[in-house]
From TrEMBL:
Residues 4-241 form the ABC transporter domain. SUPFAM superfamilies: P-loop containing nucleoside triphosphate hydrolases. It comes from Pacificispira spongiicola. The keyword ATP-binding applies. GO terms for molecular function: ATP binding; ATP hydrolysis activity. The keyword Phosphoprotein does not apply. This is ABC transporter ATP-binding protein. InterPro entries: AAA+_ATPase (IPR003593), ABC_SmlMolc_Importer (IPR050093), ABC_transporter-like_ATP-bd (IPR003439), ABC_transporter-like_CS (IPR017871), P-loop_NTPase (IPR027417). Keywords: ATP-binding, Nucleotide-binding, Transport. Gene3D superfamilies: P-loop containing nucleotide triphosphate hydrolases (3.40.50.300).
Length: 257
């Protein structure tokens, strides 16, 4: 059953189409990787899922409802920019994130709640190799460390939908592989639905259940901004990359008319 449904989605900025005719049906717990040329609208698509932007035409539903207008704990997000709180220590950032996503707080007294959040934060600090930096402030961390902290913070808040925009860009290959493992573990534990934009195709296939390619079907060299991008390929990454769904002939004909 479809959990995230996108129907005939269009997004235009100042008269320029960025996305057009995007249709998608994603089941709960699916990891969707998104690739495509720079500027083709991948981040815009994530912002539409996050309700930071409204569609120009068409509709998105999440579990049958439009995306909530106010940010809520249902969705976590890691953009290229680091999203951690600068006035809190590394450990406090993780405790705050656990507080957001806690599932057992209703039955625990406040001291036990705090202890439970601290335990989760400390386990995450170990897991991402930042146990020695718990008392530091984010500004004193390297870019890669801040990125790891931002990813851990989003994961332990346990959002139903996790939106990741090039989350591993700043990491060295070893750290990147260990953060991949961490993400897949938490995703499996909480049955999260994930949308991740990446420029690294092998990363997209390694982590994704599906790999979507955004591209322009229509292109006019005299008017490069005349048309928007859509999903041109939808690969089943769990089945050797065999196309799962590609743009139907009718849609191509309709678009190229
Ligand atoms: N708020 C905005 N107002 C006007 N134009 C915008 C706005 N946000 C994005 N755009 C334009 O929309 C297009 C798509 O941008 P977007 O960031 O979604 O692309 P992208 O595929 O994520 O690119 P990249 O891979 O380089 O990060 C770009 O041409 C960008 O300039």
């Amino acid at each position: 059953m479809s959990y995230v449904t996108v129907t005939d989605l269009h997004k235009t900025y100042a008269g320029f189409p960025i996305l057009e005719r995007v249709n998608l049906s994603v089941e709960k717990g699916t990891f969707v990787s998104i690739v495509g040329a720079s500027g083709c609208g991948k981040s815009t698509f994530l912002r539409l899922l996050l309700a930071q932007e409204r569609p120009t035409r068409g509709e998105i539903t999440i579990d049958g409802q439009p995306p909530a207008l106010e940010p809520n704990r249902d969705r976590g997000i890691v953009f290229q920019r680091y999203s951690v709180f600068g006035h809190m220590t590394v450990r406090e950032n993780l405790i705050a994130a656990e507080a957001l996503g806690a599932t057992v707080w209703g039955v625990l007294p406040s001291r036990a709640r705090r202890k439970a959040a601290e335990d989760v934060a400390d386990a995450a600090l170990e897991r991402i190799g930042l146990a020695h930096m718990g008392k530091a402030y984010p500004a004193s961390l390297s870019g890669g460390m801040q990125q790891r902290l931002a990813i851990a913070q989003s994961l332990i808040a346990k959002p139903r939908i996790l939106l990741l925009d090039e989350p591993f860009g700043a990491l060295d290959p070893g750290t990147r592989a260990s953060m991949h493992d961490f993400l897949l573990e938490i995703k499996a534990e909480w049955d999260m639905t994930v949308f991740m934009v990446t420029h690294d195709l092998s990363e997209g296939f390694k982590l994704g259940d599906r790999v979507l390619v955004f591209d322009k079907v229509r292109w006019d060299p005299h008017e490069p901004h005349a048309y928007g991008a859509t999903v041109t390929y939808d690969f089943d990454a769990r089945n050797g990359g065999i196309p799962f769904q590609s743009l139907s002939i009718e849609t191509v004909e309709e678009i190229t008319v």
